[in-house]
Design a protein that fits this description.
The strands form two sheets. A five-stranded parallel beta sheet has the order 7-6-5-8-9. It has twelve helices and nine strands. The protein is α/β, with parallel strands linked by helices. The radius of gyration is 19 Å and the shape is globular. The protein has helices at residues 16-32, 58-69, 90-99, 114-119, 137-151, 169-180, 209-214, 237-244, 248-251, 274-277, 284-302, 308-311, and strands at residues 47-52, 73-78, 104-109, 125-131, 158-162, 184-188, 204-206, 218-221, 259-261. The structure holds phosphoric acid mono(formamide)ester. Phosphoric acid mono(formamide)ester binds next to helix 2.
Length: 318
């Protein structure tokens, strides 16, 4: 299918075919990244703004590198040093960026709905890089891209998402992407952080970690999102590690070919033992690498690219 959307705001509103188009386009860009000259002129003359109101390492840097690989001009905007500190609103900030000819605004914001809000009045494209506990679409896309790359297909796989589901935009976007692609999704963690209501989305909810990981093909671990929790949801980090952390003893009771995933940042010794994060079943660094190809695909598509068939013709920039 041909892509036709101007924005990427969430996964929920995408069809399965649209998700597959992004993944196939990302695969084509990953092949471009294996050429001697990795830069293509697909966004030459375009201006991309990284409007990051919340901290980020992986997402911000990979969007910046993606824009550079596509030959766009990229501006990194962070709150510190900006006029947001003098009380300027998000709307006025975005309108000023547009007045400076921003073609694509990539926004991370602590408020759920901030990207949707900008998309209602900006003429350019808006890409959601994480909004509150609502959505993190490019994280989910790079996660399913990595699963597809390692396992061949997502359909029929058993995927367990273990950790702080309630406050996680990564969990919500992953749930939508995985279900649309035909995976069986199990959610697990403390009952305070994994409400039964998630079953309404089509997931299985269990608070029994041994049961959740025993037959999983993929175990995706999430950190505890202290910055979004309004009260203590469990007694201590040590207790969390005892009851829900992926320890070596627990890993021994999982399928030997199951993959260990984590969106980062990792809290070693809390949701995952440090050695497991670095073991040969961990694909955490592959996820980061794949984030670049996925974000190149997203920028390419919202800028008017139609799909992977358009990437083949992009000559490397000498
Ligand atoms: N996974 C993720 O969103 O990481 P950053 O917060 O570092 O971007």
């Amino acid at each position: 299918m041909n892509w036709h959307r101007k924005h990427l705001l969430d996964i929920q509103s995408l069809s399965t075919e649209e998700i597959v188009t992004i993944l196939d386009t990302a695969r084509a860009f990953k092949a471009v990244g294996e050429r001697a000259i990795k830069k293509v002129p697909a966004l030459r003359g375009k201006t991309v703004v990284n409007l990051f109101i919340e901290p980020s390492t992986r997402t911000r840097i990979s969007f910046e590198l993606a824009a550079k690989r596509l030959t766009a001009d990229i501006i990194n905007f962070t709150t510190d040093g900006s006029s947001l500190r003098k009380g300027e609103s998000l709307k006025d900030t975005a309108r000023n960026l547009e007045a400076l000819n921003a073609d694509i605004i990539i926004i991370r914001h602590q408020a759920a709905g901030a990207p949707h809000f900008l998309s209602r009045f900006l003429k350019g494209s808006v890409v959601n890089a994480g909004d509150g506990a609502h959505a993190h679409p490019t994280q989910a896309l790079l996660d399913v891209f990595t699963i597809r790359e390692k396992k061949g297909d997502v359909k029929g796989l058993k995927v367990t998402i273990l950790g702080d589901i309630l406050y996680s935009r990564v969990a919500r976007s992953n749930i939508w992407a995985l279900l649309k692609l035909g995976a069986e999704v199990t959610l697990c963690g403390p009952s305070t952080l994994v409400p039964k209501a998630f079953e309404d989305l089509g997931c299985r909810v269990t608070w029994n970690v041994e049961e959740a990981i025993a037959d999983a093909d993929i175990i995706n671990l999430l950190r505890i999102q202290h910055e979004r929790q309004r009260k203590t949801m469990f007694p201590s980090l040590g207790e969390y590690n005892n009851l829900f952390g992926l320890t070596k003893a627990r890993l021994a009771r999982t399928k030997p070919d199951s993959l260990i995933m984590h969106p980062g940042p990792i809290n070693r010794g809390v949701e995952i033992d440090g050695e497991i994060a670095d073991c040969n079943r961990s694909v955490i660094m592959d996820q980061v690498t794949n984030g670049l190809a996925v974000r190149m695909a997203v920028l390419f598509l919202v800028n008017g690219g139609k799909g992977p068939q358009d990437v083949g013709g992009t000559k490397s920039e000498i």
